[in-house]
Write a structure and sequence with these properties.
The protein is an alpha/beta fold. The protein has helices at 7-14, 30-37, 50-58, 62-68, 88-99, 114-119, 174-180, 184-187, 191-211, 219-231, 239-246, 250-262, 291-297, 304-309, 311-330, 373-381, and strands at residues 19-23, 43-46, 77-81, 105-110, 128-132, 266-269, 285-288, 334-339, 345-352, 355-361, 389-393, 399-402, 405-409. The strands form three sheets. Strands 8-9-10-11-13-12 form a six-stranded mixed beta sheet, with helices on both faces. Strands 2-3-4-1-5 form a five-stranded parallel beta sheet, covered by helices on one side. Strands 6-7 form a two-stranded antiparallel sheet. Helix 11 (239-246) crosses helix 12 (250-262).
Length: 413
Protein backbone atom coordinates (compact mmCIF):
# COMPACT_ATOMS: atom_id res chain seq x y z
CA UNK A 1 0.00 0.00 0.00
CA UNK A 2 1.35 3.40 -0.98
CA UNK A 3 1.23 6.33 1.44
CA UNK A 4 -1.05 9.35 0.97
CA UNK A 5 -0.21 12.84 2.20
CA UNK A 6 -3.47 13.16 4.16
CA UNK A 7 -3.24 9.68 5.68
CA UNK A 8 -1.98 10.48 9.17
CA UNK A 9 -3.93 13.75 9.61
CA UNK A 10 -7.11 11.93 8.54
CA UNK A 11 -6.38 9.01 10.86
CA UNK A 12 -6.17 11.41 13.80
CA UNK A 13 -9.34 13.26 12.81
CA UNK A 14 -11.36 10.07 12.41
CA UNK A 15 -10.87 9.37 16.12
CA UNK A 16 -12.83 12.49 17.03
CA UNK A 17 -16.46 11.88 18.10
CA UNK A 18 -18.20 13.39 15.08
CA UNK A 19 -19.65 12.19 11.80
CA UNK A 20 -16.96 12.28 9.10
CA UNK A 21 -17.86 13.08 5.48
CA UNK A 22 -15.13 12.14 2.98
CA UNK A 23 -15.73 13.51 -0.53
CA UNK A 24 -13.76 13.30 -3.75
CA UNK A 25 -14.00 12.14 -7.33
CA UNK A 26 -14.03 8.45 -8.09
CA UNK A 27 -10.64 6.78 -8.41
CA UNK A 28 -8.92 9.24 -6.08
CA UNK A 29 -8.48 6.38 -3.59
CA UNK A 30 -11.10 7.21 -0.96
CA UNK A 31 -12.29 3.66 -0.33
CA UNK A 32 -8.76 2.24 -0.37
CA UNK A 33 -7.49 4.83 2.09
CA UNK A 34 -10.43 4.49 4.47
CA UNK A 35 -10.23 0.71 4.38
CA UNK A 36 -6.63 1.07 5.52
CA UNK A 37 -7.40 3.57 8.28
CA UNK A 38 -10.52 1.95 9.75
CA UNK A 39 -10.33 -1.15 11.97
CA UNK A 40 -11.08 -4.52 10.34
CA UNK A 41 -14.23 -5.00 12.42
CA UNK A 42 -15.87 -1.80 11.15
CA UNK A 43 -19.37 -2.18 9.69
CA UNK A 44 -18.91 -1.58 5.95
CA UNK A 45 -21.82 -0.72 3.64
CA UNK A 46 -20.91 -0.33 -0.03
CA UNK A 47 -23.74 1.41 -1.89
CA UNK A 48 -21.93 1.06 -5.22
CA UNK A 49 -23.16 -2.57 -5.18
CA UNK A 50 -26.60 -2.48 -6.88
CA UNK A 51 -28.25 -5.03 -4.58
CA UNK A 52 -26.99 -3.26 -1.46
CA UNK A 53 -28.09 0.12 -2.80
CA UNK A 54 -31.55 -1.20 -3.66
CA UNK A 55 -31.93 -2.72 -0.19
CA UNK A 56 -31.20 0.56 1.60
CA UNK A 57 -33.34 2.57 -0.81
CA UNK A 58 -36.27 0.31 0.11
CA UNK A 59 -35.58 0.42 3.84
CA UNK A 60 -33.04 2.99 5.09
CA UNK A 61 -34.15 2.30 8.69
CA UNK A 62 -32.37 -1.04 8.60
CA UNK A 63 -29.20 0.93 9.34
CA UNK A 64 -30.63 1.72 12.79
CA UNK A 65 -31.00 -1.95 13.69
CA UNK A 66 -27.59 -2.87 12.27
CA UNK A 67 -25.79 -0.18 14.25
CA UNK A 68 -27.63 -0.95 17.48
CA UNK A 69 -26.62 -4.60 17.17
CA UNK A 70 -22.92 -3.68 17.22
CA UNK A 71 -21.10 -4.27 20.52
CA UNK A 72 -20.92 -1.26 22.81
CA UNK A 73 -17.27 -1.67 23.65
CA UNK A 74 -14.63 0.06 21.54
CA UNK A 75 -16.80 2.66 19.79
CA UNK A 76 -17.35 0.71 16.55
CA UNK A 77 -16.90 2.41 13.19
CA UNK A 78 -19.65 2.48 10.55
CA UNK A 79 -18.34 3.11 7.01
CA UNK A 80 -20.86 3.91 4.25
CA UNK A 81 -19.32 4.10 0.77
CA UNK A 82 -21.01 6.12 -2.04
CA UNK A 83 -23.36 7.51 0.59
CA UNK A 84 -24.93 10.00 -1.83
CA UNK A 85 -26.72 7.05 -3.49
CA UNK A 86 -29.16 6.82 -0.53
CA UNK A 87 -29.59 10.34 0.93
CA UNK A 88 -32.08 9.09 3.54
CA UNK A 89 -29.21 7.38 5.35
CA UNK A 90 -27.96 10.80 6.46
CA UNK A 91 -31.14 11.21 8.53
CA UNK A 92 -30.64 7.76 10.03
CA UNK A 93 -27.05 8.63 10.93
CA UNK A 94 -28.19 11.87 12.58
CA UNK A 95 -30.77 10.00 14.64
CA UNK A 96 -28.16 7.51 15.84
CA UNK A 97 -25.55 10.18 16.52
CA UNK A 98 -27.95 12.39 18.46
CA UNK A 99 -29.17 9.44 20.52
CA UNK A 100 -25.68 8.55 21.71
CA UNK A 101 -22.78 10.73 20.51
CA UNK A 102 -20.08 8.50 21.95
CA UNK A 103 -21.25 5.05 20.86
CA UNK A 104 -20.36 4.99 17.13
CA UNK A 105 -17.90 6.61 14.73
CA UNK A 106 -19.62 7.26 11.38
CA UNK A 107 -17.62 7.71 8.16
CA UNK A 108 -19.65 8.56 5.04
CA UNK A 109 -17.87 8.61 1.70
CA UNK A 110 -19.19 10.18 -1.53
CA UNK A 111 -18.25 11.17 -5.08
CA UNK A 112 -21.05 13.59 -5.98
CA UNK A 113 -22.40 16.59 -4.10
CA UNK A 114 -25.12 17.25 -6.69
CA UNK A 115 -27.42 14.43 -5.69
CA UNK A 116 -27.16 15.33 -2.02
CA UNK A 117 -27.96 18.97 -2.71
CA UNK A 118 -30.83 18.22 -5.09
CA UNK A 119 -32.37 15.71 -2.68
CA UNK A 120 -32.10 18.12 0.23
CA UNK A 121 -29.98 15.57 2.06
CA UNK A 122 -29.13 16.28 5.67
CA UNK A 123 -25.38 16.99 5.76
CA UNK A 124 -25.45 16.97 9.56
CA UNK A 125 -24.51 20.59 10.32
CA UNK A 126 -22.80 20.96 13.68
CA UNK A 127 -22.23 17.20 13.81
CA UNK A 128 -19.85 16.52 10.94
CA UNK A 129 -16.33 17.16 9.65
CA UNK A 130 -15.76 17.42 5.90
CA UNK A 131 -12.63 15.88 4.37
CA UNK A 132 -11.56 15.84 0.71
CA UNK A 133 -9.28 13.54 -1.26
CA UNK A 134 -7.60 14.55 -4.51
CA UNK A 135 -5.33 12.97 -7.13
CA UNK A 136 -1.69 12.51 -6.21
CA UNK A 137 0.49 15.49 -5.43
CA UNK A 138 4.19 15.85 -6.19
CA UNK A 139 4.93 15.04 -2.53
CA UNK A 140 3.14 11.69 -2.87
CA UNK A 141 4.71 10.87 -6.24
CA UNK A 142 8.48 11.49 -6.28
CA UNK A 143 9.67 13.50 -9.30
CA UNK A 144 12.24 12.04 -11.65
CA UNK A 145 14.78 13.62 -11.62
CA UNK A 146 14.75 14.28 -7.90
CA UNK A 147 14.30 17.92 -6.85
CA UNK A 148 17.21 20.08 -5.85
CA UNK A 149 17.70 20.13 -2.06
CA UNK A 150 16.48 23.17 -0.14
CA UNK A 151 14.92 24.75 -3.25
CA UNK A 152 12.38 27.53 -2.66
CA UNK A 153 8.72 27.02 -3.52
CA UNK A 154 5.68 29.33 -3.83
CA UNK A 155 3.70 26.87 -1.70
CA UNK A 156 5.80 24.35 0.29
CA UNK A 157 4.07 21.05 0.88
CA UNK A 158 6.15 18.85 3.19
CA UNK A 159 4.85 15.62 4.63
CA UNK A 160 2.92 16.03 7.89
CA UNK A 161 5.21 16.05 10.93
CA UNK A 162 8.17 16.29 8.56
CA UNK A 163 8.44 12.52 8.06
CA UNK A 164 8.44 11.06 4.57
CA UNK A 165 6.82 7.61 4.45
CA UNK A 166 8.74 4.48 3.59
CA UNK A 167 6.68 3.78 0.48
CA UNK A 168 5.56 6.53 -1.86
CA UNK A 169 4.11 6.01 -5.32
CA UNK A 170 6.60 5.18 -8.11
CA UNK A 171 8.82 8.04 -9.24
CA UNK A 172 7.62 9.79 -12.38
CA UNK A 173 9.05 12.08 -15.03
CA UNK A 174 7.33 15.22 -16.28
CA UNK A 175 6.19 13.80 -19.62
CA UNK A 176 4.52 10.86 -17.89
CA UNK A 177 2.54 13.13 -15.58
CA UNK A 178 1.49 15.32 -18.49
CA UNK A 179 0.34 12.28 -20.47
CA UNK A 180 -1.42 10.20 -17.83
CA UNK A 181 -2.25 12.51 -14.92
CA UNK A 182 -2.17 11.63 -11.24
CA UNK A 183 -5.10 9.35 -10.39
CA UNK A 184 -3.71 6.64 -8.05
CA UNK A 185 -5.13 3.71 -10.02
CA UNK A 186 -3.67 5.05 -13.25
CA UNK A 187 -0.28 5.80 -11.66
CA UNK A 188 0.11 2.17 -10.57
CA UNK A 189 -1.30 0.56 -13.74
CA UNK A 190 0.96 -0.72 -16.55
CA UNK A 191 1.70 2.14 -18.92
CA UNK A 192 0.21 0.28 -21.88
CA UNK A 193 -3.17 0.09 -20.13
CA UNK A 194 -3.42 3.67 -18.90
CA UNK A 195 -4.98 5.27 -21.98
CA UNK A 196 -7.72 2.63 -22.14
CA UNK A 197 -8.40 2.92 -18.39
CA UNK A 198 -8.76 6.69 -18.66
CA UNK A 199 -11.10 6.43 -21.63
CA UNK A 200 -13.20 3.94 -19.68
CA UNK A 201 -13.27 6.33 -16.71
CA UNK A 202 -14.56 9.15 -18.92
CA UNK A 203 -17.05 6.99 -20.78
CA UNK A 204 -18.39 4.91 -17.90
CA UNK A 205 -18.06 7.00 -14.75
CA UNK A 206 -18.86 10.43 -16.13
CA UNK A 207 -21.66 9.25 -18.39
CA UNK A 208 -23.09 7.08 -15.62
CA UNK A 209 -23.19 10.02 -13.22
CA UNK A 210 -24.65 12.26 -15.91
CA UNK A 211 -27.45 9.82 -16.77
CA UNK A 212 -28.47 9.76 -13.11
CA UNK A 213 -29.07 13.50 -13.23
CA UNK A 214 -32.76 13.94 -13.98
CA UNK A 215 -32.20 17.60 -14.84
CA UNK A 216 -30.10 16.70 -17.90
CA UNK A 217 -32.50 15.69 -20.65
CA UNK A 218 -30.10 15.78 -23.58
CA UNK A 219 -27.14 13.56 -22.70
CA UNK A 220 -25.50 13.76 -26.17
CA UNK A 221 -25.48 17.57 -25.89
CA UNK A 222 -23.82 17.32 -22.48
CA UNK A 223 -21.17 15.01 -23.86
CA UNK A 224 -20.46 17.54 -26.61
CA UNK A 225 -20.12 20.18 -23.92
CA UNK A 226 -17.81 17.91 -21.89
CA UNK A 227 -15.46 17.40 -24.82
CA UNK A 228 -15.27 21.16 -25.47
CA UNK A 229 -14.82 21.97 -21.77
CA UNK A 230 -11.96 19.46 -21.55
CA UNK A 231 -10.31 20.86 -24.67
CA UNK A 232 -10.57 24.37 -23.17
CA UNK A 233 -9.28 23.29 -19.75
CA UNK A 234 -6.91 25.91 -18.39
CA UNK A 235 -8.49 28.71 -20.42
CA UNK A 236 -10.87 31.46 -19.41
CA UNK A 237 -14.53 30.47 -19.51
CA UNK A 238 -16.18 31.24 -22.82
CA UNK A 239 -19.76 30.13 -22.31
CA UNK A 240 -20.92 31.83 -25.49
CA UNK A 241 -18.51 29.92 -27.74
CA UNK A 242 -19.15 26.58 -26.04
CA UNK A 243 -22.89 27.20 -26.18
CA UNK A 244 -22.66 27.75 -29.92
CA UNK A 245 -20.38 24.79 -30.62
CA UNK A 246 -22.17 22.32 -28.31
CA UNK A 247 -25.66 23.38 -29.36
CA UNK A 248 -26.92 24.17 -25.84
CA UNK A 249 -28.02 27.39 -24.18
CA UNK A 250 -25.63 29.52 -22.17
CA UNK A 251 -27.56 28.91 -18.91
CA UNK A 252 -27.23 25.17 -19.60
CA UNK A 253 -23.48 25.57 -20.18
CA UNK A 254 -23.13 27.28 -16.79
CA UNK A 255 -25.18 24.51 -15.16
CA UNK A 256 -22.97 21.88 -16.80
CA UNK A 257 -19.83 23.51 -15.42
CA UNK A 258 -21.47 23.45 -11.99
CA UNK A 259 -22.14 19.74 -12.44
CA UNK A 260 -18.44 19.08 -13.09
CA UNK A 261 -17.63 20.97 -9.90
CA UNK A 262 -20.26 18.96 -7.97
CA UNK A 263 -18.69 15.74 -9.23
CA UNK A 264 -15.27 17.02 -8.06
CA UNK A 265 -13.75 16.64 -11.54
CA UNK A 266 -13.37 20.35 -12.31
CA UNK A 267 -12.67 23.63 -10.54
CA UNK A 268 -12.55 27.37 -11.24
CA UNK A 269 -9.63 29.72 -10.67
CA UNK A 270 -11.03 33.24 -10.21
CA UNK A 271 -9.40 36.39 -11.51
CA UNK A 272 -7.44 38.40 -8.97
CA UNK A 273 -9.72 41.31 -8.12
CA UNK A 274 -7.46 43.31 -5.78
CA UNK A 275 -5.55 45.12 -8.46
CA UNK A 276 -5.00 48.80 -9.20
CA UNK A 277 -5.17 48.10 -12.92
CA UNK A 278 -8.40 49.16 -14.57
CA UNK A 279 -8.10 46.87 -17.56
CA UNK A 280 -7.88 43.58 -15.65
CA UNK A 281 -10.22 40.83 -16.88
CA UNK A 282 -12.63 39.24 -14.39
CA UNK A 283 -13.61 35.97 -16.11
CA UNK A 284 -12.51 32.83 -14.21
CA UNK A 285 -10.48 29.99 -15.69
CA UNK A 286 -11.76 26.40 -15.65
CA UNK A 287 -9.55 23.35 -15.05
CA UNK A 288 -10.23 19.64 -15.21
CA UNK A 289 -8.89 18.18 -11.98
CA UNK A 290 -6.56 15.68 -13.68
CA UNK A 291 -4.68 15.82 -16.97
CA UNK A 292 -5.22 12.16 -17.84
CA UNK A 293 -8.97 12.55 -17.46
CA UNK A 294 -8.78 15.79 -19.40
CA UNK A 295 -7.29 13.97 -22.40
CA UNK A 296 -9.90 11.21 -22.23
CA UNK A 297 -12.84 13.60 -21.86
CA UNK A 298 -11.51 15.64 -24.79
CA UNK A 299 -11.43 12.47 -26.94
CA UNK A 300 -7.63 12.66 -27.13
CA UNK A 301 -5.27 9.77 -26.56
CA UNK A 302 -3.50 9.85 -23.21
CA UNK A 303 -0.06 9.33 -24.74
CA UNK A 304 3.30 11.01 -24.91
CA UNK A 305 2.56 12.00 -28.50
CA UNK A 306 -0.39 14.08 -27.29
CA UNK A 307 1.95 15.88 -24.88
CA UNK A 308 4.64 16.48 -27.46
CA UNK A 309 2.17 18.08 -29.87
CA UNK A 310 1.72 21.08 -27.53
CA UNK A 311 3.37 20.65 -24.11
CA UNK A 312 3.33 24.27 -22.87
CA UNK A 313 -0.41 24.59 -22.04
CA UNK A 314 -0.43 21.14 -20.43
CA UNK A 315 2.56 22.07 -18.28
CA UNK A 316 0.76 25.22 -17.14
CA UNK A 317 -2.31 23.16 -16.23
CA UNK A 318 -0.18 20.69 -14.28
CA UNK A 319 1.28 23.51 -12.16
CA UNK A 320 -2.15 25.05 -11.58
CA UNK A 321 -3.68 21.71 -10.56
CA UNK A 322 -0.77 21.02 -8.20
CA UNK A 323 -1.09 24.41 -6.49
CA UNK A 324 -4.87 23.97 -6.21
CA UNK A 325 -4.56 20.52 -4.60
CA UNK A 326 -2.04 21.82 -2.07
CA UNK A 327 -4.27 24.73 -1.09
CA UNK A 328 -7.25 22.40 -0.67
CA UNK A 329 -5.31 20.06 1.60
CA UNK A 330 -3.77 22.89 3.62
CA UNK A 331 -7.20 24.43 4.08
CA UNK A 332 -6.00 27.99 3.83
CA UNK A 333 -5.45 30.43 1.02
CA UNK A 334 -6.77 30.86 -2.51
CA UNK A 335 -5.50 30.43 -6.06
CA UNK A 336 -6.01 33.26 -8.60
CA UNK A 337 -4.72 34.40 -11.96
CA UNK A 338 -4.47 37.84 -13.56
CA UNK A 339 -4.80 38.93 -17.18
CA UNK A 340 -5.20 42.42 -18.61
CA UNK A 341 -7.09 43.36 -21.76
CA UNK A 342 -3.79 44.09 -23.50
CA UNK A 343 -2.55 40.53 -22.85
CA UNK A 344 -0.26 40.97 -19.82
CA UNK A 345 -0.72 37.92 -17.62
CA UNK A 346 0.35 36.31 -14.37
CA UNK A 347 -0.43 32.62 -14.69
CA UNK A 348 -1.17 32.00 -11.01
CA UNK A 349 -1.28 33.99 -7.80
CA UNK A 350 -1.07 32.06 -4.54
CA UNK A 351 -2.69 33.94 -1.66
CA UNK A 352 -1.85 32.61 1.81
CA UNK A 353 -1.78 34.32 5.22
CA UNK A 354 1.89 35.19 4.74
CA UNK A 355 1.24 37.13 1.53
CA UNK A 356 0.87 36.88 -2.24
CA UNK A 357 3.16 34.81 -4.48
CA UNK A 358 2.82 35.34 -8.24
CA UNK A 359 3.83 32.37 -10.41
CA UNK A 360 4.70 32.18 -14.11
CA UNK A 361 4.92 28.84 -15.91
CA UNK A 362 7.35 28.49 -18.82
CA UNK A 363 8.13 25.45 -20.97
CA UNK A 364 11.83 26.17 -21.09
CA UNK A 365 15.06 24.81 -19.69
CA UNK A 366 16.75 28.21 -19.91
CA UNK A 367 14.64 30.93 -18.28
CA UNK A 368 15.73 34.55 -18.66
CA UNK A 369 14.95 37.82 -16.95
CA UNK A 370 12.30 38.54 -19.62
CA UNK A 371 10.27 35.62 -18.24
CA UNK A 372 9.97 37.57 -14.98
CA UNK A 373 8.67 40.87 -16.38
CA UNK A 374 4.97 40.34 -15.55
CA UNK A 375 5.90 39.06 -12.10
CA UNK A 376 7.94 42.19 -11.43
CA UNK A 377 5.03 44.37 -12.50
CA UNK A 378 2.76 42.54 -10.07
CA UNK A 379 5.33 42.82 -7.27
CA UNK A 380 5.61 46.59 -7.85
CA UNK A 381 1.83 46.96 -7.70
CA UNK A 382 1.55 45.04 -4.40
CA UNK A 383 4.70 45.91 -2.46
CA UNK A 384 3.20 45.28 0.98
CA UNK A 385 1.84 41.78 0.35
CA UNK A 386 3.89 40.43 -2.58
CA UNK A 387 7.66 40.43 -2.19
CA UNK A 388 8.71 37.33 -4.10
CA UNK A 389 7.74 35.68 -7.39
CA UNK A 390 8.52 32.36 -9.07
CA UNK A 391 9.00 31.06 -12.59
CA UNK A 392 8.25 27.33 -12.72
CA UNK A 393 10.05 25.74 -15.66
CA UNK A 394 12.30 22.84 -16.67
CA UNK A 395 15.63 24.29 -15.59
CA UNK A 396 17.80 21.67 -13.84
CA UNK A 397 18.56 23.88 -10.81
CA UNK A 398 17.03 27.02 -9.26
CA UNK A 399 18.14 30.28 -10.86
CA UNK A 400 17.91 33.82 -9.52
CA UNK A 401 16.43 35.89 -12.37
CA UNK A 402 15.99 39.00 -10.22
CA UNK A 403 16.47 39.78 -6.55
CA UNK A 404 12.72 39.13 -6.12
CA UNK A 405 12.17 36.38 -8.71
CA UNK A 406 13.50 32.81 -8.68
CA UNK A 407 13.18 30.25 -11.44
CA UNK A 408 12.66 26.75 -10.04
CA UNK A 409 12.47 23.30 -11.63
CA UNK A 410 8.99 21.78 -11.78
CA UNK A 411 10.26 19.03 -9.48
CA UNK A 412 10.89 21.64 -6.75
CA UNK A 413 7.36 22.96 -6.87
Amino acid sequence: MFARWCQEPLRAKLRRPYVHLVFGARQTGKSTLLSRLLPPDALRIDLSVPATRASYLRDPDQLLAQCRSLPRRGKPYVFIDEAQAVPALFDAVQHLYDSDKGRWRFVLCGSSARRLRRSGANLLPGRSFLHRLYPLTTSERPPDPAPAPHAPSPLPFPWPRGRQPARRFPAVDLETRLAFGDLPGIATAPEGARDELLRAYAAVHLEEEIRREATIKDVPAFLRFLRLAALESGQMLNCQAISRDAGVSQPAVKAHYQLLDDMFVGFLVPAFAHSARRRVLSTPRFFMFDLGLRHAAAALRATRDTVRANPGPLFEQLVGIELWKRLQYLGTGQLYYQRTKDGAEVDFIVEVPTGLYPVEVKWTEHPTSSDARHLLTFLREHPQRARRGFVVCRCPLPMQLHEQVTAIPWSCL
